[in-house]
Structure formats: structure tokens, C-alpha cells
């Protein structure tokens, strides 16, 4: 009996196709997470290279860190603002641009174009616009309004980084929602209008249920992206003023690379990873209640 049967050749071919993906997961996910766990259990002097095993000391330090509550609050405010605005505006823009009118392609390109711009370049431009004598305050002054120093006050600094992030990334959700909207059969809309349904009722009872899988996808992508947003904070505010815009991912960077506390920084990174996993799993479980699956 031959060893290389058709079935075994097919199995080997399948493994060869998924080998690059498995290698990527191993090199860029499993090994880094394993190293982060190891570093979190050790105190590492980066100057001497000496590591001392401290067990759960860094995990215990989470409970006594006086800055952590403010960091977590800033993370919730930033992520919540980005997620709500990004999904809402993305869907609204997609609904408006799903109609046929002259210039629709131009506006689709206009809203999507910030996505392809470098994050740092985009944030630097916003930094100039948001300065005390920048472009935004210049426009406000032209209509008789004295604008604040946007990046030097806690509330306006957080609002600024949220708006900067949303304007840059809303194009991704817009494209996903556009694709979903164009996949809704037009016959359903015609039948609903014949039955007397109008505007909001059609959107709530036909459009929204049929695009709910895309809403789930965009929610997961947007939540993960918001929790990982770093460049906007680093370039615009540096986490300030005080801790008003210091989100968890930036706090990880500070502890690990500014204060050279690799062990505690790794512990915070694992906390961030756990938040991402829990929120993703929660959204995935909720799909059974609010995601429509056509039979």
C-alpha cells in the first residue's frame, strides 16, 4: 500500500497553506505573550541585564498603583467615545453615500482618504490645528468665538484626541457598512413600501437586522483599535495634561520604556490583553441575541 495516498497529500497541502499563518501566530503572538508573562514575574534591570524572580509582586502592585484608576478611567472615556462616534458616524455616512447622486464617488474617496495617511503625519497636522493659535481657533476667532487651548486642558485634550482618531478611522467602518448596505436585496425595500412602511421603520426592521453581522465586525475592530491607539496620544498630548489622556497602552509604554520597569510594564500589557480578549468574547457571545442570521 502506498504511503502518499491522495488523502495524505491533501492533508499535507492544507498544512503547507496554513503554515505561514501558524508561523506568524507563533512568532508574533504566542512567543511575545509568553515572554510578557515571564517578564511580569521578574524584576529586570535593563542596564545590567540582571533578572530577579519576584513572583506575583507586580500583580500585587496593580492594586496599590495610585495612577492606575485615572489611567483606566481615561481608557474607558477614550475607547467609549471612539467606538460610539466611529460606528455611529460610519453608519450614517454609509447610509447617505449609499444613494445614487452626482459626486458620491468623490465623497466616498474623501471620507476614506485619511485611512491611508500615516498616523504620525495625520496627528502632527492635527497638533498644529489644535494649538492655541492654530487653524481651528483661527476659524473660531473669525466668527467671534475665543477657542480654548485644546491640548492643555483635560476635557478638551481628551475630546481632541477622540475627534482626531474618529476622523482618521471612520472611513474603514464607512466602507464596511457600504458593502453591507449594498448587499441588502432591493426587493425587501419594495415589499416594505407596498405594505406601508416608511423611512425609520424600514431602517430599523429591515436594514439594521440584515447588516447586523457587519455591525458586530465593526464593533470588534473598533474596540480593539481604540484600546491599542498609541500614536495619537504620544504625539498630541504625551498623556497629559496630568493623566487626563494617559490611556492604558500609553501607560504601558511609560512604565516599560520611560521608567525602565519592564516587569510592571509587562504586567500592564497583560492586563490590556485580558481586556481586549474579554470584550471581544463578550461581543461574540452577544451575537446570538442581536445578530441576524438568515436561514
TrEMBL record:
CDD domains: TM_PBP2
Membrane topology: Multi-pass membrane protein
Keyword match Transmembrane helix: yes
Gene3D superfamilies: MetI-like
Entries under Pfam families matching the protein: BPD_transp_1
Transmembrane segments: 12-39, 71-97, 109-129, 157-181, 202-227, 233-253, 265-286
Keywords tagged on the record: Cell membrane, Membrane, Transmembrane, Transmembrane helix, Transport
Boundaries of every ABC transmembrane type-1 domain copy: 72-283
Subcellular location: Cell membrane
Keyword Chloroplast: no
Protein family: Belongs to the binding-protein-dependent transport system permease family.
Record-given protein name: Sugar ABC transporter permease
Amino acid at each position: 500500500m502506498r504511503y502518499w495516498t491522495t488523502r495524505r497529500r491533501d492533508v499535507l497541502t492544507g498544512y503547507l497553506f496554513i503554515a505561514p499563518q501558524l508561523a506568524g501566530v507563533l512568532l508574533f503572538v504566542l512567543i511575545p505573550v509568553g515572554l510578557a508573562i515571564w517578564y511580569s514575574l521578574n524584576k529586570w534591570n535593563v542596564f545590567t541585564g540582571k533578572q530577579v524572580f519576584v513572583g506575583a509582586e507586580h500583580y500585587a502592585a496593580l492594586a496599590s498603583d495610585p495612577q492606575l484608576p485615572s489611567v483606566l478611567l481615561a481608557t474607558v472615556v477614550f475607547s467609549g467615545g471612539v467606538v460610539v462616534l466611529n460606528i455611529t458616524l460610519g453608519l450614517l455616512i454609509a447610509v447617505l453615500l449609499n444613494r445614487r447622486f452626482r459626486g458620491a464617488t468623490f465623497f466616498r474617496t474623501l471620507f476614506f482618504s485619511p485611512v491611508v495617511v500615516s498616523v504620525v503625519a495625520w496627528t502632527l497636522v492635527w497638533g498644529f490645528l489644535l494649538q492655541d493659535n492654530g487653524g481651528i481657533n483661527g476659524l473660531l476667532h473669525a466668527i467671534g468665538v475665543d477657542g480654548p487651548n485644546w491640548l492643555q486642558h483635560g476635557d478638551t485634550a481628551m475630546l481632541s484626541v477622540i475627534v482626531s482618531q474618529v476622523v482618521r478611522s471612520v472611513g474603514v467602518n464607512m466602507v464596511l457598512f457600504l458593502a453591507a448596505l449594498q448587499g441588502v436585496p432591493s426587493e425587501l425595500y419594495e415589499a416594505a413600501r407596498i405594505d406601508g412602511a416608511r423611512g425609520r421603520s424600514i431602517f430599523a426592521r429591515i436594514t439594521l437586522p440584515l447588516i447586523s453581522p457587519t455591525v458586530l465586525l465593526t464593533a470588534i475592530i473598533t474596540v480593539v483599535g481604540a484600546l491599542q491607539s498609541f500614536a495619537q496620544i504620544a504625539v498630541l498630548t504625551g498623556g497629559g495634561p496630568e493623566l487626563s489622556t494617559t490611556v492604558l497602552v500609553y501607560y504601558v509604554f511609560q512604565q516599560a520604556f520611560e521608567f525602565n520597569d519592564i516587569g510592571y510594564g509587562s504586567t500592564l500589557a497583560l492586563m490590556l490583553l485580558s481586556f481586549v480578549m474579554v470584550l471581544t468574547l463578550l461581543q461574540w457571545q452577544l451575537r446570538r441575541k442581536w445578530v441576524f442570521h438568515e436561514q
